[in-house]
Amino acid sequence: MAHALLVIDVQNDFCPGGALAVEGGHEIVDGINAMTPDFDAVIYTQDWHPAGHSSFASSHDGAEVMSVVDFPYGPQVLWPDHCIQGSTGADLHAGLDAKCAELIIRKGFNTALDSYSAFFENDHKTPTGLEGYCRTRGIDTLTMVGLATDFCVAYSAVDAAKLGFDVTVRLDLCRAIDFAGSLDKAKADMVAAGVRLSSG
Q1: Is 178 a catalytic residue?
Q2: b/e burial code for range 131-168 (CB count within 10 A of at least 16 → b)
């Protein structure tokens, strides 16, 4: 069986100067590049939203950025417009060694559904296809890094653990938004799901 590195959403819009910048997001790039040769497979994800995505505050009259509203699938944070398909903000960080990726999973392209997890959209039942890829490649162990710890990384890690993968999150190679206690909650959720949290 194989061990894959899953690099979550290290994109310009999540790095300093981006539309939804995560503090220190760029600081993890060199560390990620340094570890890629140690894995049997390297997989990247990208947020890939159409303009006018339903998770954007701008798509809801009078809505404030970072407010929470009820969607058919549950509570949804309304974000600033970010990672719009084909935009510079949606590009992977230029310092990232993307040529080593054997797969790039794009998520969040369904206008009506946000997609934090690399495995399922936010309805928790629409798959991205990543599980099937991992199964057919014989991947049973995943190490995750990227942005942001408390949203896309945590959702991906919890889903992967629930699917039976052996999962480690390298917290030193992640950065968090930490919105209204979201980081502490994310860490607790990951531990409860059986995810190992490592600092290197």
Answers
A1: no
A2: bebbeebebebbbbbbbbbbbbbbbbbbbbbebebbbb
Question: Is 107 considered catalytic here?
Answer: yes
Active-site residue, selected from the candidate residues 47, 81, 107, 174: 107
Which of 59, 37, 36 shows the shortest CA–CA distance to 49?
A: 59
Q: Is 15 a catalytic residue?
A: no
pLDDT per position as a tens digit, 61-114: 999 999 999 999 999 999 999 999 999 999 999 999 999 999 999 999 999 999
Q: Whole-prediction pTM value?
A: 0.96
Going from the C-alpha of 171 to that of each of 21, 70, 167, the distances in angstroms are 18, 30, 13
